[in-house]
Design brief:
By secondary structure, the chain is an alpha+beta fold. Helix content is about 30%, strand content about 25%. β9 and β10 form a beta hairpin. α1 packs antiparallel against α2 and α4 packs across α7. It starts with 7 loop residues before the first helix and ends with a helix. It binds 2,5-anhydro-1,6-di-O-phosphono-D-glucitol and manganese (II) ion (2 copies).
């Protein structure tokens, strides 16, 4: 990469001008989301000094105890995005219903979905966490926004990304033209392009899954992991390594950086639920990023981005990352 520093703003302007990928309202939206992430990053960094750690005394719609930072991050994203005129409505892991842009502000043509703080169990222990977002366009000729407008398959996303708050704060973005990474320069207060055309290697020796759930898995997942664990002497003929950070953002960031496979499959603990992770603001944006980087994302049987959502907080089984490994696990499911 040249020594010339390209800010997120410049990247977006050039994408708009040279490639026609980004209408100006979408550019504004992405700038606003990035600004909100900067401010969440600051709150995360302060930690105990800012009094932001620990649990709040509330539960979200999924019945999970909310952390203070879940609520703060949700508010930061809403306040940053509601007045700009680029959005019609927002939806979040932390809100049961959709948040329609109030009448006092102009309404735009986009819909924003987010997981304001991903990896909540890692907040208090100073391990990487993040924000995940997905952008859809309002269906055409629609009068008045409602939850049905959000229920679009992932392949209809117009932008998706995440920001990981780790040793560095990194914003990762796709507008359908590959994946770019921007590192936050704290002194300058701006995101600087640090990687373009991110590519996930097709093969890997690293898998990520919460092994404590092994006894609850379905046969195809068990078969795949057993074969990895068998190492050189087993059917795969090579040794595998394992990582599980318990922040999807951090696990996906590692996979975009050096490859790997991530699985949070359906399991027998709650058989009526199709998985733990949420389709619209976790699996769809991450699935699209991974595909844009040459990887694959399925629920074991079907491409994640082709799933037609029926509910805002719908859950899904997730297998994503290095293409050949994802295809293998998917084949094991289809053969089952
Ligand atoms: P969130 O903090 O937004 O609820 O998401 C946590 C998710 C995901 O980030 C992670 O991969 C997974 O939950 C970890 O779950 P386990 O604790 O069951 O391993
Ligand atoms: Mn999450
Ligand atoms: Mn969350």
């Amino acid at each position: 990469m040249s020594t010339k520093r390209i800010s997120l703003t410049r990247y977006l302007v050039e994408q708009q001008r040279d490639h026609g990928h980004i209408p100006s309202q979408l550019r504004l939206l992405l700038e606003v989301v990035a600004r909100a992430c900067k401010s969440i990053s600051q709150a995360v960094n302060k930690g105990d000094l800012g009094g932001v750690l620990g649990s709040a005394s509330s539960e979200n719609v999924q019945g999970e105890v909310q952390k203070q930072l879940d609520i703060i991050a949700n508010e930061v994203l809403i306040e940053a995005n509601e007045w700009g005129g680029h959005l019609a409505a927002m939806a979040s892991e932390e809100m049961e219903g959709i948040y329609v842009v109030p009448n006092r502000y102009p309404q735009g043509e986009y819909l924003l979905l987010f997981d304001p703080l991903d990896g909540s169990s890692n907040i208090d222990v100073n391990v990487s966490i993040g924000t995940i977002f997905s952008v859809l366009r309002m269906p055409e000729d629609d009068r008045g926004v409602d939850v049905g407008d959000f229920l679009q398959a992932g392949h209809r996303q117009v932008a998706a990304g995440y920001c990981v708050y780790g040793p560095q704060t990194t914003l990762v973005l796709t507008v359908g033209d590959g994946v770019a990474m921007f590192t936050l320069d704290r002194e300058q207060g701006s995101f600087v392009l640090t990687r373009e055309n991110v590519q996930i290697p097709e093969d890997t020796k690293e898998f990520a899954i919460n092994m404590s759930n092994m006894r609850h898995w379905d046969a195809p997942v068990k078969r795949y992991v057993d074969e990895c664990l068998a190492g050189k002497e087993g059917p795969r003929g090579k040794d595998f390594n394992m990582r599980w950070i318990a922040s999807m953002v951090a696990d996906v960031h590692r996979i975009l950086t050096r490859g790997g496979i991530f699985m949070y499959p359906w399991d027998k603990r709650e058989p009526e639920k199709p998985g733990k992770l949420r389709l619209m603001y976790e699996a769809n944006p991450m699935g699209w990023l991974v595909e844009q980087a040459g990887g694959a994302a399925t629920n074991g049987r079907q491409r994640i981005l082709d799933i037609q959502p029926t509910r805002l907080h719908e859950r899904v089984s997730v297998i994503l990352g290095s293409k050949n490994e994802v295809e293998r696990v998917t084949r094991y499911h289809l053969e089952d």
